[in-house]
Amino acid sequence: MISVKTLEGIYKWSQDGMQDWWTCDLQLFELPQQEPRREAESSLTETETLEKNQTFRACAAFGHMDFAGDYEISCCYGEFELITADDKSCLRFTDWRLGADLESVLPTREKGSYPLDDVEAPILATVDLDADGKPVLRIQEWQGNCDNVLLNSPNAFRR
């Protein structure tokens, strides 16, 4: 049986193109987590910090490298819920926003990499189980400029 608890963990996806390369690590949490603060936010007052404190249960570290070797990567934070659609288990993601790097999915930033300009993250994914009973996520809807890559990739998100 698929539950939010069984879905918790880090899922990895990547896709090679003729001249580009894409990668995404997606971490799901059963319970809300505190979003890490960006360096610029470290000087906020206690009141401002409380107002800025946001929680999340999903983090997507999406990266893209083009043919010239320019690499852009950022973490996006959001929420998800486990739903059933057309008799399939699915994850519906909402409230994505760009944020600071989350060490569990982006432990080190490649030198010279750029942050993303906009959110790149899933909106809807089906959940299947592989032969070992581990969840496999297949993207059905994607938020961002790289949606064509994700929607047409034969690769799935796997733990």
Structure commentary:
With 159 residues, the protein is mainly beta. The protein is built from 3 helices and 8 strands. It has helices spanning 4-7, 46-52, 147-152, and strands spanning 9-16, 21-34, 55-65, 71-85, 88-99, 121-129, 135-143, 157-158. The protein is globular and about 45 Å long. It starts with a helix and ends with a strand.
Structural class: mainly beta
Through-space gap between termini: 17 Å
Give the overall average pLDDT.
90
Largest beta-sheet characterization: 8 strands, antiparallel
Overall 3D form: globular
What level of helicity do the residues show?
Answer: 10-25%
How many strand segments?
8
Helix-strand topology string: HEEHEEEEEHE
Uncertain residue ranges: none
The tally of helices reads 3
Strand content: over 45%
| Gyration radius, rounded | 16 Å
- Largest sheet, spatial ordering of strands: 1-2-3-4-5-6-7-8
Summarize the topology.
Elements: H1 4-7, E1 9-16, E2 21-34, H2 46-52, E3 55-65, E4 71-85, E5 88-99, E6 121-129, E7 135-143, H3 147-152, E8 157-158
Antiparallel strand pairs: 1-2, 2-3, 3-4, 4-5, 5-6, 6-7, 7-8
Using brief descriptors, characterize the structure shown.
single chain; 159 residues; mainly beta; eight-stranded antiparallel β-sheet; 8 strands; 50% strand
Sum this structure up briefly.
With 159 residues, the chain is mainly beta. It contains three helices and eight strands. A hairpin with a 2-residue loop joins strand 4 (71-85) and strand 5 (88-99).
